[in-house]
Design goal:
Blueprint (H helix, E strand, L loop, with lengths): L1 H46 L24 H15 L4 E7 L2 E8 L3 E5 L28 E2 L11 H9 L6 E6 L6 E6 L6 E2 L2 E2 L6 E2 L3 E5 L12 E9 L2 E13 L5 E8 L2 E5 L6 E2 L14 E6 L2 E6 L5 E3 L2 E3 L3 E3 L4 E4 L2 E7 L9
Parallel strand pairs: 2-13, 3-4, 14-15
Antiparallel strand pairs: 1-2, 1-22, 3-5, 5-6, 6-9, 7-8, 7-10, 10-11, 11-12, 12-13, 14-16, 16-17, 17-20, 18-19, 18-21, 21-22
Length: about 350
């Protein structure tokens, strides 16, 4: 009886061990199969394109937007935000201080277009003949009007006007585009006379990468009888995240070799101060009138440009001292220490009147 009982228990234990062995083999096989599928998916995703903005893989035949190089969702969000920015009116800031004045134009759009005039009907025929890889680019009203400065006292006024006529109705544009590693700056030339980026001729109608610090020559290069016109480009990035562009500053090199106007594209924010990292500079007459740290910042809100002070600084808006952000709109006057900022809407003649 004992021998039979022991034999029965042994057979039952062997059967249980066999079940465990089979279950282990099955689980091992399933695990190996799962790992093989995971490695296969990783290999597939490694060769699949990703959206530079959200890093989402593009599957099931999805492709990036040709113009923005973004996935469908990010491109739609980008365009909706850009439509909101189009409604924000460009502003002209007249900054006056001890012994010096400056004129700065603010733009909320992430694409700036420049040319000789502003009215779109004068060059609407260009939209019917897209050039190069800018077929999806919509020719619109120029943001920046470039022509001879009226009131320049010089013996070469005639050559200045000839140089102004060399600028096309729509001459070129600059844009900020998202990227996987960092946001990029690109420039395009639409003109028949041609343009130069750091002394290299720009091909007509093709977006070209633009360095963070560059010089754009608008139209023909400078000669002995025909002075040149240029735009100095400087990109200001977030110090905590070099991928993000905070603002882009274009500074006009006029026909006399002097800089009269600055154009600031406020992508996220623009600092106001006298330091080298401030796109909005207080004019200085050779003496340090203000501290180099930023006095405040200007950022884009849904209803327009907002001015917010830095900690420790106070400013006066329309005669009242305030610490709250101020909406910049035509007619507003802001006083920062010894400097006064007058806010006006940017008209066409403001771009070429001294």
């Amino acid at each position: 009886v004992l021998r039979l009982k022991h034999q029965t228990e042994t057979e039952a234990l062997k059967a249980e061990l066999e079940k465990i062995r089979r279950r282990t083999e099955l689980e091992t096989g399933e695990h190996a199969l799962r790992m093989a599928r995971l490695r296969q998916n990783e290999d597939m995703l490694r060769h699949v394109k990703h959206c530079p903005q959200c890093d989402r893989p593009l599957l099931n035949g999805e492709v990036l937007d040709k113009t923005l190089n973004l996935c469908e969702w990010c491109a739609e969000e980008y365009r909706n935000e850009e439509m909101d920015r189009e409604e924000i009116v460009p502003l002209r800031l007249c900054i006056s201080g001890p012994g010096a004045d400056a004129t700065v134009f603010l733009f909320a759009r992430r694409t700036l277009q420049w040319g000789r005039c502003r009215q779109k009907d004068l060059y609407s025929h260009l939209s019917k003949h897209p050039q190069g890889d800018v077929q999806d680019y919509e020719i619109r009203e120029n943001d920046i009007v470039l022509r001879v400065m009226e009131g320049d006292a010089s013996g070469r006024v005639r050559s200045h006007r000839e140089r102004s006529l060399a600028i096309s109705g729509v001459h070129g544009a600059l844009t900020v585009l998202p990227g996987r590693k960092k946001e990029t700056i690109k420039v395009v030339d639409f003109s028949s006379s041609g343009g130069y980026l750091k002394k290299h001729r720009l091909p007509r109608g093709k977006w070209q990468p633009c360095p963070d610090n560059a010089q754009i020559t608008v139209g023909p290069a400078s000669t002995a009888t025909l002075p040149g016109l240029g735009l100095s480009v400087r990109v200001f990035r977030d110090p905590d995240n070099e991928k993000r562009v905070q603002s882009v500053k274009l500074e006009r090199d006029d026909f006399l070799g002097e800089k009269h106007h600055s154009y600031v594209m406020v992508v996220r924010e623009a600092l106001l101060g006298s330091g080298p990292d401030n796109p909005l500079l207080f004019p200085r007459n050779g003496e340090g009138a203000v501290a180099p740290h930023p006095w405040g910042r200007i950022y884009v809100a849904r209803n327009g440009f907002m001015f917010e002070r830095s900690p420790g600084n106070n400013f006066v808006s329309d005669g009242d001292q305030t610490n709250s952000p101020v909406l910049l709109e035509p007619g507003v006057e802001v006083r920062c220490g010894d400097y006064v900022i007058e806010v006006n809407a940017a008209g066409e003649r403001d771009f070429y009147e001294v």
